[in-house]
Fold each of these.
Amino acid sequence: MNQATWNSGQTWNQSGLVWSGKTTTTGIKMNSHVSQAYKRYKDAGLIPFAQGVHDGLEANATVFTELPVTLVALLAALTDFTAKYNAAIKGSEAQTQARINARTVLLENLAKLGAYVEGVAQGSADTIRLAGFQAITHEHGPQVPLVKPSIIAALNYASGKIQLRLQAQPNVHGVKVQYRSAGGAWQDGGGFPSTKLVIVSGLTPGVLYDFRVQYLGGSDGASDWSDITSHICT
C-alpha cells in the first residue's frame, strides 16, 4: 500500500500518514494534539496568542524546520490584523469588515501551522507547547482548564494609567481587561500577552473605576470574569 501524505480531509493520527518524512509508528500512544480553542478567542486574545506561536516557532527553529507558513508571513498577517482591529474599534462598517477578513487570514495561517506542529510532535504535549500552541489529550479531553482570575491589587502607575496585579496561573496566553465608571457600561481596557504587566491607560484622573479581567488560553479558550476591583485613578 502506498503511503499517504496529510491533507485537511484526514485525521491527525490516521494510519499510514507521513509526518516530516516519517511514517506513524505502531505502538506509540498518541496522547495529545493541538487545541483548536484559539479559534474562539476574542480579537484581543487572538493577538497575543498568535505572537506566542510566532515566538515559540522562532525560538525552536531547530525542531520546526519545514514550516508551511513562514514566520515572516505569520508576522505580516498578525501585524495586519492588529492594525485593522485597532482601526475598527470605533471605525466604519468597512473597517469592521477589513478586521474580519484579516482575522480569517491569521486563523488560516495558524491552522496550517497547528497541523504541521501536530505532525512533528507525534503526540508529545511538550513539543506542541514549544510552538506556542496548547495541547489537549486525545483520550481524556482538555488539560488544565483556566480558573477564575484574581486581581491582587490595583495601583496608580502614572497619570491616567492604572496597573492591575494579577494572580498567575499556567496556560494563560493573554489577559482581557474591562473597566467602567459610575456603574456604566463595561468598556474594553485592552488585551495583554501575560499576567506580568497589565496597565490600563486612557483613564481620567480623579474618577473611580471598576475593573475586571478574563484569562485567555488553556483548553477552555477563556476563563470566567474575575471579581470586580475598584480604584481611583490619579
Amino acid sequence: MQNDDDRQSSANIPGGSPAEPAPVASPDAAVSPPSPPARPSNWSGKTIFWLGLGSIVLAFFAAIGSGWGLWNYQFGFQLLKIAFGIAVLAVAGGLFLGWWARRKSRVAARPLRWTGMVLGGGLALWLLSFAYTERTVPAIHDISTDLADPPQFRMLEVRADNLDQIPGDKEPEMKGMNPQQRWAAIHQKGYGDIRSVRIASPVAEVIAKAERLAKVRGWDIVVADPVEGRLEATDTSRFFRFKDDVVVRVRPTEDGMGSIVDMRSISRDGVSDLGANAKRVRSFLADLAGTNPAG
C-alpha cells in the first residue's frame, strides 16, 4: 500500500497516475466587456427648448386674449414684455450652457438647445423690431391727407381722447401750441408725403372703386355713398384685434371731370400707431389712383 509520499511521487513518475491540471481561464473570460457609456443628461436642452417655445406661446396668448376681450391691451403688452424676457433668457441660457459644456468637456444636447434658442431669438428680434419702429415714427395715431380740413366721420365716432396725449408740449419749437397745432406740426414733419390725390374719374366711380378695395382688404364698411362722395370703414388687426377707423372723402375737381380724394385713418386705442395708419393711407390711395404696381 502506498503511503501519501508514494502517491505524491507517483504523480511525477512516468507511468504513474497524472495529477489533475489546474483550470486555466480563457483570455475572453478574464476581461469583462466594457459597460456602455452613460448617455449625457438632456435636462439643459429641454430647459432651453421649453423656454423658447414658452415665450412664443405666451406672446400668442397675450395677443389672442386681448383680441378676444379677456383683458385690455395694456395687460397684453405686459405679457409681451414677460415673453420677451423669457425669449432673451432662452438665448442667453443656451449660449452659457453650450460654453459650460465645452469647458467641462461634456457632450451638450444640441438639437433641443439650439431649437429653443432659435425660437426665443426669433421672437425677441420680432418684438425688438416694433420697439425700433416706435422710436422712428411720430408718436401719433391720427393720419390725414388734409391737415387744415381733415375728413370728418359721420357714422363712426372719433375717440374722445384723440388729441389728449399729443407729444411736444415741452419742446421749445412747439411752446405755446395747442394739441391740434402740435399734431399738425408733428404730422407734417413725419408724414409730409401724405397728401390729397387727384384722380381723373368722377366721384361716383372713385367711391365705387374705393368700396371694392375696402372689401378686398377685409374692412367692415359702414357707409359708401357715391352721391356725397364718402366711405367710412373699420380695419381690424389680426391678433390684438386693434380697430382703426377710416374715412375717404371724394370731391369733384373744378371742371367736374375728376376727383380730389382725401383720406383719414385713426386708431381707437393707444398713443402711437407704429406707423400703421400712414402705411394704410399710402397703400390705399396708391391702389385707388392706380399707381401701386401690387394693387
Amino acid sequence: MKIQLKNIVMEVETVGAGKPTLLLHGLGLNHSIWQNIAGLYKDQARFILPDLRGHGVSELGNADGTLEQYAEDILELLDQLGLEKVTLGGHSFGGYIALAFAEKYPERLDSLILIASNAAADTEARREQRMREMDNIRATGTAEFAETLSLRLSDRSFVQAVTREMIAKMNPDSLINAILAISRRPERLHVLSAFTGPLLIVAGAEDLIVPEAAARMMAHANPLAKFVIIPEAGHMPMLAAPRTVGAAIIIGG
C-alpha cells in the first residue's frame, strides 16, 4: 500500500498479525528482502515492510543526504499507522537508520535489532571511496555499482542475481543520496550502550562488508545485548537463512 508522508509517498507492505515489527532494508534494495521471513512468521508478528525513501517504488522527494531524514520518515510512518511503539530492525544501511531513530526516539521502540550493520563511522579512506562511487554513478549510472556490490553481498548466485537487479533499477539520484547519508554517519556505539530495551545483533559469519569483530563490538557495547551469528551466511542472512534469522527476530525482539 502507498502511504502519504509529508514529503514523499512511501510504499509499505504489511504481513501477519501480532507484535508490530518494522524492518528496514539495506542500500539499493527494497522491502522484498524480508518477504520470506514475513511469510514464515506471519502468525507471530505483524511485519511492517517499507521501501525506504528513493528505494523500490517509494519517492525520493526533497532529499537532504542524511540518515536523520530517513529516520524522520519512519517516525511519520509510525504516526500514520497509529503505532506508539514497535520492534525496529534494520539491515546494513537500514541499521544505520534504525540507530539514528533510536538515538532520537528511544521511547518509540520496544526493541532494536541490527542485522549485518555497523555502529562505527566510516574511516576517512572509506569515505573517500564512497565519494568516488557517487562520482561514478553520476557519470555512468547504477549498473557497475550494482554488479560490484552484489558480489560482495553474498557468494550465492541467486542472492547476487536478485540484489544486482534491485540495485541496477534504482534512480541514480536516489542511490547517491543514500550513499552520501551513509558517508556522513557518526559513530553510534553510545546509542547501543544507552538503549534499555531488548537489543539483538545479528551477523553473517562470512560477511565481506561488516566484519564479525565490528558486530561483536556492538554487542559488547550493551551487557544486555544478544548476539547471533549465522553460519555460512554473508551480508544477506535474511535471504541465505530466513528461518534462522526470522526466529532470532521473533525471539530476540
Amino acid sequence: MRTQRIGQQAEDAALKYLRAAGLRLIKRNFSCKTGEIDLVMRDKSKLQAQILVFVEVRYRAAQNYGGALASVTHTKRTRLTRSAQRFQQLHRQYAQWPCRFDVVALSGTLQAPDINWIAGAFSANSASHR
C-alpha cells in the first residue's frame, strides 16, 4: 500500500510538471497484458501538429545504484513499447500519430522532488533490438 501511494505521488508530481511544460493528459495508468504505461500524453510541437507521448515515471529517494533513470532496463523498455503498440491498436484515433517515449525521473523528497525529464529517452527500435 505504501509503495502504491508513493508511486501515485510521483506520478502526480510528474503530471503537474509535464502539464506546466504544455503536454496534455490523454490516459493515466493504461494497462494491458504486456505491461503498464504511467502516462499517455499529447505534445504539440512546432514541427508537428501532435505527438503521442508515452511516459514512464520513476522515483528513487536516493541516487544509489544509478537512481531512477538506471531502473528503466531493456526489459522495461520492451514492455513499454509493446504496451504503446497495444494502446494505439485499442485507440484507433491515435494509430497514425508519431510517438515518443519519455522518462520522468524523480529523486529527493516527493514534497519537493528533483525532476529530470528525458524527452525521447529511447525509441521503439532500440527497445526491441538490443
